[in-house]
Design goal:
alpha/beta; 2 domains; binds pyridoxal-5'-phosphate
Length: 452
């Protein structure tokens, strides 16, 4: 039965990404507190949070330094804006800090509040930039099927998932989608990863030529696709894609919202996969989710014409009330300091062999089709018959059932359809990682017993 809290929630709360018709029967799990990698619900049940909530609570759920940074900031300067001629010391320090950790030389940092807003801002900057350099016809932005870039009108258009488009009249004009780089699913029989990457880069070039290179402005990519199913790029993919982009003067945007700050085993996914973006968007791990904040970093090539043009019309006409919010900035700054001082990237690297050994042990299991990922982000894709690549009947709701069983075992994992995601807080210890997989094994055993 829904708890008292859950019943009150059902009465008043219009939920995101929820089957609202089914919701009244089920109600939400009401989480009341957290402790390291664990969270607790209002009935006192404890769960190991194996997805960092929404891929974001990288430092877990009870970091005292972050709590103090937030409360100190609230008592210092709770708010000031960053519109024309205004700034605050915290945003200044954070902007400089971000430039110092960027994976490629970046020139300036723009602040927003969410990954969606960061990507939306990037779209406007791309259009503004091409107008400023006298190429206003360069308007089209290419993203990929299965990408997830957010939910605002432009970022949902960039997302390549049907749930983001259907019934919202999206995508908007000038946003196109090309191949999803999922090797296991889309490679032709006998095709190597390298050949698959060549084919996708060739397809991209053909698409740019068909659209007209003079009309193509930018290409958006997550280093590892997150919500589209944890899909790392096939070997040589970004090298080949970037050659095509360079040939037709198409900007590259790296959406590091999930990958940033150690998730891939390096500070940025761009480094892991050899991406050299002109624009980089970041959120989630930027504040370890302790406050809403996102950022767009742009290189000098992009920034200089934007700045010049803003002189002509008198302003760069974009920005949010909470761009550079001092409390969010203080928490983000402290987060970045902790990543550095605690060598969180080194910690991730030290855990990777254990994480991947445990994950790989599920290859060949009765209902496991593919195990994939990188660093501390991974997915196990469930199939009814992996050998023949037969998916479960959607009515079976295999992924959702596994998640429900996980809860009974004190484990929170996430299902994207029948793909089960692991994205634990980066501070997880070796013992907690063992505990995660002990709980997952019990979950999987019950799933196997009951699904047939
Ligand atoms: N980009 C990526 C890669 C994401 O995974 C997400 C959210 O999951 C977003 C953008 C959107 O971020 P937000 O939900 O903060 O708007």
């Amino acid at each position: 039965d829904p708890s008292e809290n859950a019943a009150a929630d059902i009465a008043a709360h219009f939920h995101s990404f929820t089957n609202l018709a089914a919701h009244p029967e089920v109600g939400p799990l009401v989480i009341t507190k957290g402790d390291g990698v664990f969270v607790e619900d209002d009935k006192g049940n404890r769960y190991l949070e194996a997805v960092s909530a929404l891929w974001c609570a990288s430092l877990g759920f009870s970091n005292e330094r972050l709590a103090k940074a937030g409360s100190d900031a609230l008592r210092g300067l709770p708010y000031y804006h960053t519109f024309t001629g205004r700034s605050n010391p915290t945003v200044i320090e954070l902007a400089n800090k971000l430039l110092s950790v960027a994976p490629v030389p970046m020139s300036k940092v723009f602040f927003a509040n969410s990954g969606s807003e960061a990507n939306d801002s990037a779209v406007k900057m791309i259009w503004y930039y091409h107008n400023a350099i006298g190429k206003p016809e360069k308007k089209k932005i290419i993203a990929r099927l299965n990408a997830y870039h957010g939910v605002t009108v432009a970022s949902a258009s960039l997302s390549g998932l049907v749930t983001n488009h259907r019934d919202f009249d999206l995508p908007i004009a000038n946003i196109l989608h090309v191949d999803c780089p999922h090797y296991f699913r889309y490679a032709e029989p006998g095709e190597s990863e390298e050949d698959f990457a060549t084919r996708l880069a060739d397809n991209l070039e053909k698409r740019i030529l068909a659209e007209g290179p003079d009309t193509v402005a930018a290409f958006f990519a997550e280093p590892v696709m997150g919500a589209g199913g944890v899909i790392p790029p096939p070997a040589t993919y970004f090298e080949k894609v970037q050659k095509v982009l360079a040939k037709y003067d198409v900007l590259l945007v790296a959406d590091e919202v999930v990958c940033g700050y150690g998730r891939t085993g390096e500070m940025f996914g761009s480094t892991t996969f050899g991406m050299k973006p002109d624009i980089l968007t970041t959120a989630k791990g930027l504040s370890s989710a302790y406050a809403p904040i996102s950022a767009v970093m742009v290189n000098e090539k992009v920034y200089a014409p934007i700045a010049r043009n803003s002189g002509t019309i008198g302003t760069f006409g974009h920005g949010f009330t909470y761009s550079g919010h001092p409390v969010s900035c203080a928490i983000a700054l402290e987060t970045l300091k902790i990543y550095e001082e605690d060598n969180v990237v080194g910690h991730v690297q030290s855990l990777m062999p254990q994480f991947w050994k445990a994950l790989r042990s599920y290859e060949g299991r009765k209902y496991v089709g593919e195990v994939r990922g990188v660093g501390l982000v991974a997915a196990i894709e469930l199939y009814a018959d992996p050998e023949n690549r037969t998916s479960f009947d959607p009515a079976v709701k295999a992924g959702a059932r596994l998640v429900e069983i996980g809860l009974t075992q004190g484990l929170i994992v996430r299902a994207l359809g029948d793909t089960i995601v692991f994205c634990p807080p980066l501070i997880i210890t070796a013992e907690e990682l063992d505990e995660l997989f002990a709980r997952f094994e019990r979950t999987m055993a019950i799933f196997e017993e009951t699904i047939g």
